[in-house]
Structures
1.
Amino acid sequence: MIDLLHNTSLNRDLVKEGFCQFKNDSFLNDSFYSDLESLVSDIKIIEDQLQPVGYYLSIMHGDPSLRNKINQLVLKYIDPMVDSMFTEASVLTSSIIIKPAHTGRFTTHMNWSCTERLDHSAFTLWIPLNDTTSANGTLKIFPRTHTFFNAPVPVNVHNQYFAEFTDYINTHDQYKPIDVKKGEVLCFDERIVHGSDINNTATPRVVLQVVVTHKPKETCFFFTKENSIESYEINREYFINHGVLDALMGFKNTRCISENELPIMSITKEEFIHKLSLAHQQ
Ligand SMILES: O=C(O)CCC(=O)C(=O)O
């Protein structure tokens, strides 16, 4: 089994289930949470930013100075935490997610691939500022789905792979909300099928989301164009300066590294069910 994490039982969960929960470690102290709270209190959400999705992401809606401040916070508290959690990993990017009261559904999706080699994985560390449950739209994860797609996930089609049978996934009894308390860290493979429902409480749900890559020094995003798939150079500075809007608008500010024939990127409901049964036999 590949060694991603120092903690062997969490490593087993991450490799097998595609996610794990750091519950009893005191990685994050009070000053981290008060610094995060003070950054969040400076964010003034403009109503238009919430359209059409209903949530705020600093990587999309914030400006470079805010993203730089978040990066400073991550450098101070999260980079050392990543070093003590992972055998070999580094932070690629971070974002504050705010789901205001009574809004903010994330459609079921996989995250964008950010590594050229498929055997070099990437993970999200999902760090809530307040306890999250199904009441305020905590993260929902479909365990063991992280190995279903053997091709990079491009930024422009990441939620289209199972568009034909999203209802089946959304109502599946294994696709479950995960309760995460303030002080805990949920870690999941970027390829896992996940999403979340709206925040049904009157209090905003706030999360620091940090993407880490295991091993690779070269990180990239993928984009599909007609019959080809292109990869573009990205790094920590790129996300601070340009956020993800540049990527969504066709990568004006970075370099194309490669262009290849488009791999097959869809899956049928039958294939999904088959892969799920194989994943449960292991
Ligand atoms: O915060 C959420 O509800 C969803 C976040 C998400 O999709 C992600 O971190 O990849």
2.
Amino acid sequence: MKIIDAHTHIDYITPIFQKDVVGAVCCATQESDWPKILDLMKVDNHIYGAFGIHPWFVEDVNDDFDKKLKQLLQSNSNYMVGEIGVDKYKPDMEKQMDIFIKQFELAIILKRIVCLHCVGAWDKILRVLKQYNKENLPPIIVHGFNENEQIMTQLLQYKNVFFSLNKNSVYGKNCRIEQIPQNNILIETDGKPDAILSELIDVIAKRKNKSNLPEIIYNNMQRVLNNE
Ligand SMILES: [Zn+2]
């Protein structure tokens, strides 16, 4: 089995720690992560770097962060944008939205994969998505997808949206894994050492009754990375 972790962080680099994992998307949460991820990518070519400001960290963001982010993204056409988004349970929604939109627009202009974080604010995210031409939207990795079928259906009108499942999605009650189209599923640790990806994939394969699901999930991630 070959697995790519669709969402982890600098403190838990999956290919080093887990069997079968051959690559990982390493998401920044704040500006101080950016140089650390760049250093890691220099020594490990299985790491795909995503750069941005996480909604939990918008308070101490520098005014010129978007200028710096743009420069960094322009230095390598493979760099992704993430982890960006909104979180209803964290302070300053207005600032969260402002920072999210700035970064999302950079991703559109520069045609970059987006690693999206959304908790309790899908109405806001869907309103933003509607403002753009569907054809211009980059691939979006919805991290830790754990929502009902209604939200899934609304997101599926965008052909480039992928649902990255973590431990909570697989073992929780919200997410109707049986309903998610197999070609839109990815898998992630979210930097949690107790999320063993091969086990999570096994559970999903059983629930969907698809023995070749490991290959499908791997190929889905290749499609995201190659922007096909
Ligand atoms: Zn994360």
